[in-house]
Amino acid sequence: MNELLDAERVWFRLLRVNTRMNSVIADRLREIGLSVPQCDILTTLTEQEGMSQQDLARRLYVTKGNISGLVDRLVAATLVERRTIPGDRRSHAIFLTEAGRSIATEAIVVQKRFVEETFAKMAPDRLAEFEKLVIEVRDLVRAAANVREPPIGSNLPNKVRTSSSPRARMRSL
Q1: Residue 92 and residue 82: Cα distance in Å, rounded?
Q2: Which 3 state secondary structure label does DSSP give 3?
Q3: Is residue 37 part of a domain?
Q4: Distance between CA atoms of 56 and 93, rounded to whole angstroms?
Q5: Under 8 Å CB-to-CB from 124, ≥6 apart: which residues?
Q6: Are the beta carbons of 82 and 75 closer than 8 angstroms?
Q7: CATH number of the domain enclosing 65
Q8: Residue in 88, 29, 104 with CA at minimum distance from that of residue 55
Q9: Is residue 48 within 8 Å of 54, Cβ to Cβ?
Q10: Beta strands of 48-165 (E only): which ranges?
Q11: Whole-prediction pTM value?
């Protein structure tokens, strides 16, 4: 079989598995009153409190505007609080409240339970190999993110693209 089609099929399966995992986790977190992004912030703060919103945004790969709205809602829910950073009138450090720490602990239990039901059931040697593959893919994605590509079709000025999208081809496999 064509190596590119094999790679596209694996890529598509990885996307689908990621979507399914996110959906399961989102459903379980919703049961304790959290969204996935709220959980991300709270659990990140269990590792390092006092981060600025900008640092949180960078750590979670979201925009500063997105993090601002999420933190606003967490403040309103009394799960986190903003504290002024000495010497910086514009930035605030984000800290967990006791209620925030409690629900973050619950969220971590939800995540650990999911890992026990899935990844922990893999044989240790297969899990280690899977981790190596995930790291390899992560590194390739990082490298691809730094590559500037011309717009699709720009190298084909007089030709019409007739191939279907990778997702359409994967559905037919």
Answers
A1: 6
A2: helix
A3: yes
A4: 10
A5: none
A6: yes
A7: 1.10.10.10
A8: 88
A9: no
A10: 51-52, 80-85, 88-96
A11: 0.76
Specify if 152 maps to a domain: no
Tell me the per-residue pLDDT of 74-88, one tens digit each, with 9 for 90 and over. 999 999 999 988 888
Residue 50 lies in a domain: yes
pLDDT at 28 over 90: yes
Instruction: Report how far residue 23's alpha carbon sits from residue 5's, in angstroms, rounded to the nearest whole number.
Output: 27
The answer as to whether 67 is a domain residue is yes
Helices (H) and strands (E) in the chain, counts: 7, 3
- Domain of residue 97 covers 32-121
Residue 130 structure tokens: 């899977």
Chain mean position to CA 154: 31
Task: For the chain, give the number of residues.
Answer: 173
The SS3 call for residue 167 is helix
Contact predicate 34/74, CB 8 Å: no
How many domains would you assign to the chain?
1
> What pLDDT band is residue 105 in, cutting at 50, 70 and 90?
very high
Instruction: Give yes or no for a contact between 56 and 44, defined as CB atoms under 8 angstroms apart.
Output: yes
Which region, left, alpha or beta, applies to residue 4 given φ > 0 means left and ψ of -120 to 50 means alpha?
A: alpha
Q: Residues 25, 111: contact at Cβ < 8 Å?
A: yes
